[in-house]
Write a structure and sequence with these properties.
The protein is an alpha/beta fold. The chain has one domain: Spore Coat Polysaccharide Biosynthesis Protein SpsA, Chain A, CATH 3.90.550.10. Helices cover 38% and strands 14% of the residues. The two termini are 34 Å apart. The structure holds 2-acetamido-2-deoxy-beta-D-glucopyranose. The site of 2-acetamido-2-deoxy-beta-D-glucopyranose (NAG) has 3 residues, from loops. It holds the Pfam family Glyco_transf_8. Keywords: Glycoprotein, Glycosyltransferase, Membrane, Signal, Signal-anchor, Transferase, Transmembrane, Transmembrane helix. Its EC number is 2.4.1.-. It comes from Vigna angularis var. angularis.
Length: 351
């Protein structure tokens, strides 16, 4: 999907938002029932290698509700969370397959999918393509977050499901301690268990790929930086931009610190005064930047699918690569670059 930079027009945007919303949702639900399910090939069954920890008989357990809990709660399981929607299902399918293909212990992986609509359709699509997959589909209540999303930010980034990652600690079972969150626009070429094992140290709530050379100031408005009661939030930290599309989250620490509420509080504030321009990323930066553990950059090879024409491609990460991340769904940095370019142009025009 292509995002066009659009200046917010407060009078028009709710109507425009509604129109865009209906454009996307109407054809999807009508057509997809027939197409989605038959669109993808059935993946083969993937087996653990001999030295994998065995978590009893997977399929039998999952058919039995009580044993399913024992399975999910096993320490050996690698938990992966992704959002699912009909628009990006193609990317999700490829991502899931890539996780399984490159895992040494694919039967020890449990997928936690979060969707906000078309649940039965999406469940059928996943079950048909991955008949042996251990997964659970959670329905995310859009209304939980839609009232918190500031309408001044660009609508394509406003999709409530983009915010679902902040609610994983509430959605997933309490016994799940650690989860790898993945965007839908990436491909793994290495064993996800290694990513899941990223050390979080004594305190970090999450690990993500950090980019300290990115201009952190640009992620927040001058209004934010000029208000000491707000910008002081970064006073004791050295904040860096990080990518929220590949995260290892300690759900227990998150729950203890009630970080979902902290993220919501910044979103509430954003509704009253514009402190940032992007969607779901800045609240994460506000709460966590400078206090996270680092995910090795090999787990976020970005710079794929940038805009050559405008010269907005990111540099590729040198060295070995474990995960390819397209700039397809979120476009955060892409957008940030456009904003920067527009800012420079405006300045040039003024100057
Ligand atoms: C970082 O971004 C801010 C705000 O957009 C800008 O004023 C500043 O000059 C930038 N700094 C660098 C080093 O590019």
């Amino acid at each position: 999907m292509k995002l066009k930079p659009r200046r917010p027009k407060s009078n028009q945007s709710p109507l425009l938002f509604f129109l865009i919303l209906s454009l996307f949702s109407l054809p999807n639900d009508a057509k997809s029932t027939t197409t989605l399910i038959h669109q993808f090939k059935e993946a083969p069954e993937f087996y653990n290698s001999p030295d994998c920890a065995s978590i009893t008989d997977t399929q039998d357990n999952l058919n039995n509700h009580q044993n399913a809990d024992t399975y999910i709660c096993s320490e050996e399981v690698v938990h992966v969370a992704m959002t699912l929607d009909t628009t990006y299902i193609r990317g999700s399918m490829a991502a899931i397959l890539s996780v399984l293909q490159h895992s040494s212990c694919p039967q020890n992986i449990f997928f936690h999918f979060v969707c906000s609509s078309s649940a039965s359709l999406l469940r059928a699509a996943i079950s048909n393509s991955f008949p042996y997959l251990n997964f659970h589909l959670y329905t995310f209540d859009d209304s939980q977050v839609s009232g918190l999303i500031s309408t001044s930010i660009r609508s394509a980034l406003d999709c409530p499901l983009n915010y679902a990652r902040s609610y994983l600690p509430n959605l997933l079972p309490l016994c799940v301690r650690r989860v790898v969150y993945l965007d839908s626009d990436l491909i793994l070429v290495d064993d996800i268990a290694k990513l899941a094992d990223t050390p979080l140290g004594d305190k970090a709530v999450l690990a993500a790929p950090e980019y300290c050379n990115a201009n952190f100031t640009a992620y927040f408005t001058p209004m934010f930086w000029s208000n000491p009661s707000l910008s002081l939030t970064f006073a004791d930290r050295k904040p860096c931009y990080f990518n929220t599309g590949v995260m290892v989250i300690d759900l227990e620490r998150w729950r203890e610190g009630d970080y979902t509420t902290k993220i919501e509080e910044w979103m509430e504030l954003q509704k009253r005064m514009r402190i940032y321009d992007l969607g779901s990323l800045p609240p994460f930066l506000l709460v966590f930047a400078g206090n996270i553990a680092s995910v090795d950059h090999r787990w976020n090879q970005h710079g794929l699918g940038g805009d050559n024409f405008r010269g907005l491609c990111r540099d590729l990460h040198p060295g070995p690569v474990s995960l390819l991340h397209w700039s397809g769904k979120d476009w955060y940095r892409f957008e940030a670059n456009i904003n920067k370019a527009m800012l420079i142009q405006t300045r040039r025009r003024k100057g």
